[in-house]
Amino acid sequence: MKLIHVVGARPNFMKAAPVYRALHACPSVQQQIVHTGQHYDANMSDIFFQQLSIPAPDINLQVGSGSHAQQTAEIISRFEAVVLNEKPDIVLVYGDVNSTVAAALVCAKLGVKIAHVEAGLRSFDRTMPEEINRLVTDQLADILFTPSEDGDRNLVREGVPASKIHMVGNVMIDTLIRMLPEAEKQIPTGLPSCYILVTLHRPSNVDDVDWLTAAHAMLSEVAREIPVIFPIHPRTRQRLNNVVKQEANSDGIRLLEPLSYLEFLGMQAHATALVTDSGGIQEETTYLGIPCITLRENTERPVTVDVGTNILVGRDLGRVRETIAQTLAGNLKRGSIPPLWDGHAAERIAKILTQ
Ligand code: UD1
After folding, report:
1. Is the same domain home to 160 and 196?
2. Whose CA is nearest to atom 21 of ligand 1?
3. pTM of the prediction?
4. Which pLDDT tens digit goes with each residue over 264-293?
5. Strand blocks (E) in the chain
C-alpha cells in the first residue's frame, strides 16, 4: 500500500509523527511525506521534523503565505500534480488547516482514498476558517479517525456512515507522552518556579488591534504579580509590533520567538497556567493537568472543558484576569484524562489502515 501524509502547518507535525512511526513498523506500507510549505520558518517547521524524528519531506510544495484562497488554491494545484505522479492508494490529512482541506479536495476529485486524522471536531462557529476546513474535509474523507466521542456524534449527525468512523484517541497526546521525558531534560535554565505561559495567534483575536492592545495591557498587569512568558507566533509578532511600537519586553512580559516542540512542552508542563487561543494546547494542558484559560467563545474540543482543565473565557479580558487570580489563590480547575488519550492512538490508526 502506498500512502502519502500531507502536512503543512506547525500543529500537523506532532500529529503525523506518531502515525508515521506506527506505519513504519508495517512492511506492506510504503510512506511518503508531502509538506505543503504553509509554514516555512525554521522555528515553525524544520525544528519539529528534527525533534520529532520525522524524515525530511519527500516533496515540499513551497506554497508559503497568502490569503486563504491563494494558499488553498496553490496547494490544490501543486498537490494534484503530486498525486497524479505518485499514484498513492491513500492520503492521510491531519487536523483543520488549509493544507488539510486542500489535499482532501484534490484526492476526492481524483478518486484517491482520504483518511482524516482528528476528524469530527466542531466549534459550530463558521466564522473560524478551521471550522470550514473541518466540515469540508470530513464530508470528503473515506476513513475518519476521531480523538473523542463528541467527534463521532458530530459526524453521525452530519450523515457520515458509522462504518467510516473510528474513535482511536488523540495522536497529539501520543507525541506528548513519548517526548515528555526528553522535554524535561531541556527545560531552559533560569525558568521561574511559577509563571503564566501565553500563546495567541488566532486572527479573530490578534487581528483586532483594540483587543490586542487591551490584552497586552492586561498581561502587563498580570506580569506584576507573576512572570508572563509569551512565545510569539509570526502573525501576532507583526500585529503586536503595530500595537506596542516597541520591543514589548519592557512591559514585564517576556516575549520569545516561537519555541521548539520540546522547549514549549517542557515549559507547559511546569507552568502555573496557560492563557491561549490555540486548539492543541487545550488538549495538551488537559493531559498535563495544568489549568488552561482559553481566549475563545467556543471550542471544537469540548472534552477539554467537560473532562479536562480547560476554561473558556471568551474574549473577556476581565475574566482572564479573574481566572488567573483564582488560580494563583489555589482555586484551580482540576480534570482528568479523556478515554484513549493513552499514547497508542497512532497504533490503532496503523492497525485499521493495514486491515
Ligand atoms: C495556521 C492554521 C491554524 C493553526 C496555526 C498554527 C489555517 C487556516 N490556520 O494559522 O489553524 O492553529 O496555523 O500556527 O490553516 N508566517 C510566517 N512564517 C511561517 C508561517 C507563517 O511568518 O512559517 C506568517 C505569515 O505572515 C502568514 C501568517 O504568519 O501570513 C499566518 O500564517 P498562516 O499559515 O496563513 O496561518 P496561521 O495563522 O499560522
Report:
1. no
2. 39
3. 0.96
4. 999 999 999 999 999 999 999 999 999 999
5. 2-7, 30-35, 59-60, 90-94, 113-117, 143-146, 165-167, 196-199, 228-231, 253-256, 273-276, 292-294, 310-312
